[in-house]
Amino acid sequence: MTAIQARGLAKGYGGFPAVRDVSFEVPEGEIFALLGRNGSGKTTTVELLTGLRRPDAGTARVHGLDPVADRAAVRRRTGVMLQEAGFFPDLTVAQTVDTWRGFTAAPRPRGEALELAGLSAKAGTRVRQLSGGEKRRLDLALALLGRPDVLFLDEPTTGMDPEGRRDTWRVIRELAGQGTTVLLTTHYLEEAQRLASTMAIMDAGEIVAAGGMAETLAARGGRVAFRLPAGVDPESLPLPVTLDGATAVCRADDPDLAAQTLLSWAAGRGLRLAGLEVRAATLEDLFLDLPGSAR
Amino acid sequence: MTLAAAYHLGTRLFWRDKAMLVASVVTPVGLAVGMPVLMRNVRADGVSAATEIFHGTLAILLSITAFMNIAVALTARRDQLVLKRLRTSRLTDAQILAGQIASTVTQTVALIALSTVAVRLLADVPLPADPVLYAAAVVLGSAVMAVLGAAYTAAIPRTELAAAFTMPVFLLAGVGAGAMPIPLPDWADTVLGLLPTSAVVDAVSRGDVLPLAPNLAVWAVAGLVALRLWFRWEPRR
What we know:
The complex is a heterodimer. By secondary structure, chain A is of the alpha/beta class. Chain A folds into two domains: 2-217, 3-Layer(aba) Sandwich (Rossmann fold); 221-288. Chain A is 31% helix and 28% strand. In chain A, the strands form three sheets. Chain A has a six-stranded mixed sheet, with helices on both faces. In chain A, strands 11-12-10-13 form a four-stranded antiparallel sheet, with helices on one face. The longest helix of chain A has 16 residues, at 162-177. Chain A is elongated. Chain B is mainly α. Helices cover 79% and strands 0% of the residues of chain B. Chain B contains ten helices and no strands. The chains are: A alpha/beta, B mainly alpha. The interface between A and B is medium-sized, with 24 and 26 residues.
């Protein structure tokens, strides 16, 4: 079953196309990451899928429902954590959750929601006194109040410290394990790589790469990097490399094999490959290779 | 009962905002009670002068406690992205606005009732001869002014300017209803007489029921259409 579907979504603001022809599907129970730089169109895509904006073209569906026309019905099953949304600064954390419970059908008890978001100790604190990361946790608590089947998380861990980030990842994984479908946007590649099973990368309002996380990364191979020994002509190396200052970088489908080849070549000449680093492709490599990265 | 939750939210936030309470409770109630008390004591025709000015100050209560209050509150919540967050809840757009409007109407009606009793005790202003008409005019007038105040936020660029932007409305309503005794040319008097606040004051002071209903109906429709067309849920990007 498809939980979230975007088909040819387009939205512009005053002639500027924020999102163009965005299509993807998220099956039930999966974590899908929408990656991209700031301004790439991730937030607009989320706002279209959550029915906060009406698309200029294309269709958005959540459990088969139109999030604009059937917003009330869609909301019964979705939790939304916007990138930016305000609180009432003078209410305490507990009062904020209680207020939101009033807007939610069959809400989680306040204690459970605060526990999930790791905010139990802050229940009596006024929202204006929370740190950025704590506000993000409160955002998460509100998004989870209605036990949603579909969760939209726009930059959920921005502003969180490493502990908050790990806690949030754990909660997201647990919810997905219980069958919740999660669409998250992030510009933290590690976050996407750790959480998501499928992803799409957006750039300038368009999807420029998409697919399963593992397959996409495997298809990109990996890299071997080392400091080029003094007096060695890069042309004389057994594998082609690119130079990044004094560091030679060799891209290879099988980076382990490439490392072995390079090491035996070096051993045969009595050279050391200092600072040798072998790794599989990361999302960052993929990201930096995108057209328009200007790097 | 999500509408009730939105109503309670609006009410709770109204009474918590101490700075706003000075503007939207103390000032208009002070004027609505203080001016009749003053008239009662300085004018020879004390009671009738007090009564006349009290009826005029209803326009001030309506334009401050209903119109300005909801315009400032909704502009602030729009700019703080609170309205945006409310839209991620189960509340529909109509429920969010209806909750706020209903809560504003309650506040306004309560303050007018309080002022009515206060001027009876302090300035001998007689209680309304036709309480049903009085109540209907006050409740419907508050509702129309709250709808118009909500719609007016579309014209307010940002929170800091909200009070300043509502000031002309307050002045026009006050002058039109005779709460601020400024001599006016006939045409201006006629135009200001078309304001919903003037219609409410005329109905309360002279029993002019017939013009009241169509006047409020037209303004209500205009307000609802404007809400539908122009209401902004987020600050401009």
